[in-house]
């Protein structure tokens, strides 16, 4: 029995240097990566959400809100990665992972100033990714470029037993998965909105062309072919305006053109999109128009601006409103 106790004591004493050696070597890449993911998920998710909101929502109030979210994200990074880490050696992620950033010389927390220097050097680790992140982490104390500059090392201070490992992994998952889900939803919304915006941008050219050509067709006819020309113009109309124009063309325009030998020729001098959405648009069309009649064979010139409303029907833009402005 005494021999067994002595053997057990010897094994425990021999295990202590191994644990101290592992601690001196520095934390593993996997645990550091999990800690970094926990630290970065909240600010990245918040900043991404603010970016999507600013892209989708308009107005000064929303702009202030979005910038406020970005500012809070920055404050979180300062408080977590600089102040808290500098004073205690831990961040939220390192706390969950049982890690601590300490000085290589004293083993104490590195202080706020050196934590700031370390954070500022992290982009260099990203630029020198293979050299700054992986290669040093497999050598000696597993220090990155930022660690070398700040004189710091990330060490393991909690026992990685089975129970602690499961608890730590569960806490990590509980922190990262919800934030990751929010970030995923934000990205899906962003790309969906971006696709819709690109479709609307592409529609600008279509609506201006339809509005300009339609306005010219509605305002151009000759006495001999007025019926055919007005009937062709009806092909680009829809809704109540189609019915109104059909009645006006049949009862007023066509009889007057034939009776008084009216010839009208319009041309589009320019156009400007007022608004456009997925299925509605409004375009200003500037028209130059020449008119001759049997009683006045000399050509009369006039100009007008017309607000043309368009509706998308089965992927085709049709004119639904036609409002001369002067």
Characterise this structure.
The protein has 326 residues and is of the alpha+beta class. It has two domains: 2-160, no CATH class; 197-324, Nuclear Transport Factor 2, Chain: A. It contains ten helices and six strands; from the N terminus they run ααααβαααβαααββββ. It has helices spanning 2-25, 29-56, 60-88, 92-97, 112-127, 129-137, 145-150, 162-218, 226-233, 239-260, and strands spanning 99-103, 152-156, 263-276, 280-292, 300-313, 316-324. A hairpin with a 2-residue loop joins strand 5 and strand 6 (316-324). Helix 2 (29-56) runs antiparallel to helix 3 (60-88) and helix 3 (60-88) crosses helix 5.
What distance lies between the first and last C-alpha atoms, to the nearest angstrom? 111 Å
**Which class do the helix and strand fractions yield?**
alpha+beta
Largest sheet: 4 strands, antiparallel
Average pLDDT, to the nearest integer? 80
The poorly predicted ranges are 6-23
* Coarse morphology: rod-shaped
Number of strands: 6
**Percentage of residues assigned to helices:** 55-70%
Write the H/E string, N to C: HHHHEHHHEHHHEEEE
Tell me the strand order in the biggest sheet: 3-4-5-6
**Rounded Rg:** 37 Å
Query: Strand share of the residues?
Result: 15-25%
**Number of helical elements:** 10
Count of discrete domains? 2
């Amino acid at each position: 029995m005494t021999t067994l106790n002595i053997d057990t004591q010897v094994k425990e004493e021999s295990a202590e240097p191994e644990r101290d050696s592992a601690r001196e070597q520095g934390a593993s890449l996997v645990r550091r990566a999990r800690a970094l993911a926990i630290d970065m998920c909240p600010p990245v998710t918040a900043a991404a959400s603010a970016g999507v909101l600013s892209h989708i929502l308009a107005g000064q109030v929303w702009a202030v809100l979005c910038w406020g979210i970005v500012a809070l994200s920055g404050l979180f990074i300062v408080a977590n990665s600089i102040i808290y880490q500098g004073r205690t050696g831990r961040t939220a992620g390192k706390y969950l992972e049982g890690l601590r950033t300490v000085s290589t010389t004293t083993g104490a927390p590195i202080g706020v100033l050196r934590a700031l220097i370390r954070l500022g050097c992290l982009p260099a680790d990203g630029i020198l990714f293979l050299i700054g992140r992986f290669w040093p982490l497999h050598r000696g104390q597993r220090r990155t470029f930022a660690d070398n500059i700040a004189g710091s090392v990330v060490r393991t201070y909690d026992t990685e037993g089975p129970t602690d490992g499961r608890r730590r992994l569960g806490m990590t998952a509980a922190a990262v998965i919800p934030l990751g889900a929010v970030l995923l939803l934000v990205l899906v919304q962003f790309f969906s909105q971006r696709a819709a915006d690109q479709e609307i941008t592409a529609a600008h050219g279509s609506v201006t062309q339809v509005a300009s050509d339609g306005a010219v067709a509605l305002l151009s006819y000759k006495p001999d072919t007025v019926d055919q020309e007005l009937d062709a113009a009806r092909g680009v109309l829809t809704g109540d305006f189609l019915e109104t124009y059909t009645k006006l063309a049949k009862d007023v325009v066509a009889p007057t053109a034939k009776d008084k030998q009216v010839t009208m020729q319009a041309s589009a001098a320019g156009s400007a999109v007022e608004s456009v959405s997925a299925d509605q648009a409004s375009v200003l069309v500037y028209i130059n128009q020449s008119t001759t009649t049997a009683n006045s064979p000399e050509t009369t010139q006039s100009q007008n601006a017309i607000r043309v409303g368009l509706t998308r029907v089965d992927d085709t833009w049709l004119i639904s409103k036609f409002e001369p402005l002067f």
